[in-house]
Write a structure and sequence with these properties.
The chain is mostly helical. It has a domain of about 140 residues. Helices cover about 75% and strands about 0% of the residues. Helix 2 packs antiparallel against helix 3, helix 2 packs across helix 7 and helix 2 runs parallel beside helix 14. The longest helix is centred in the middle third of the chain and has 35 residues. The two termini are about 15 Å apart. The relative contact order is 0.10.
Length: about 425
Amino acid sequence: MEPFINKKYSYPGLFLRTGLLLLSIGLIFGLTGALQYILLGFIKQYISFEKIRPLHVSSVVFWIILGAIGSVLSYVQQHSGKKLHSEILLKIQFYIFCVSIISILISYFFGVFGGREYWEFNPLFALPIGIGWILFIINFVKTLGSFKNQPVYVWMWLTGIVFFLFTFLESYLWLFPYFSDNVVNDMTIQWKSYGSMVGSWNQLIYGSSIFLMAKISGDKSIGYSKISFALYFTGLTNLTFNWGHHIYTLPTHDYIKHISYIISMTELILIGRIIYKWRLTVSEARKHFHIVSFRFLSAADFWVFLTLLLAILMSIPGINVYTHGTHVTVAHTMGATIGINSFLLLAVAFDIFPRNNKYLSLAFWIANISLLIFWISLIIAGIEKAKWQMRAIQSPFSTMMMDIKPYFISFFISGLALIIALTFIILPLFKKENTRK
């Protein structure tokens, strides 16, 4: 059994690389959408904003999902010292996801919708995705074999895999009249399922991050520490209840809102503490040996702090009523999706595909600085919109949008810089290079 030997596995690597391609596509669509805020009617006759938004959101969400799958499938082999239970199931899962995702993106181009928020595609596409996820569960469980005396990251992977399937199925309850015929039921289940779904893939990504930290430091005890298991149980609580702050504006039970407020975002405090303490203990030699992965883990630690700070403010009901539905929410999402999840997955990607060159360091800093400017611009734009929508006498919507246009220009320019930097970061991961022995 060789749990900490880095090996290259073709199809798990393909999941990661396909996810990286989707990240690139999603960023391009996001930048196009940002440009449409500045140049009204920009290429609207070819692809309007109502198509751009789901193309952007779905591409980035599928990057997170495929990246998490590739990370778990790679690391479960390194942890167990065994190959995956079934290469055939793995290939079937990969091609099911690829065909489904391509079909979904094409359907958006033709204006074929029919879903909800994250999943705006026709519900028929959900069936193959669900089947592919079941194959993922089978391969993971069979490969692992036993759950006795397993480290925390194994339990995180298992929890994330099982709960994702549950929340994914839950997100389609709107197909039943009992939910779809009642707008409160419909929106409650929609936001609940998506909030819990984010918690599910966080378990997959955080588990992979803890495995990677143990691998870099050479300290297996990280996976068995009390603080790591505290993170696991807090994450489990969060994916069960933390969605409540999304429905403060809905007329639902107060106790749901109170519970969600108390536990809101506590898992980010713990993951931040784990990364911070790990950075203090890792040796200089090992730090330089895994320099790229280490840098992205450190960057994620910084973004955990910023995202936590904003999330706590957004979870206060008196503030939430102002920020809900504004660009402040978008800023929180971007900080978590890029600053935390994407940077953690990039740390894993650079571990599985070891790369380094003279441009990576510069691109790393440009990506973080531009993301920070992007994030701040969205927050300011959201605050201005919140002030406008709460005024007793409102100016026209178009006037408000013109007033905050400078912030749109700022987040477009910083977004462009972010895309360029991430391109220089991602491209080396597609080049062939010998792996470490």
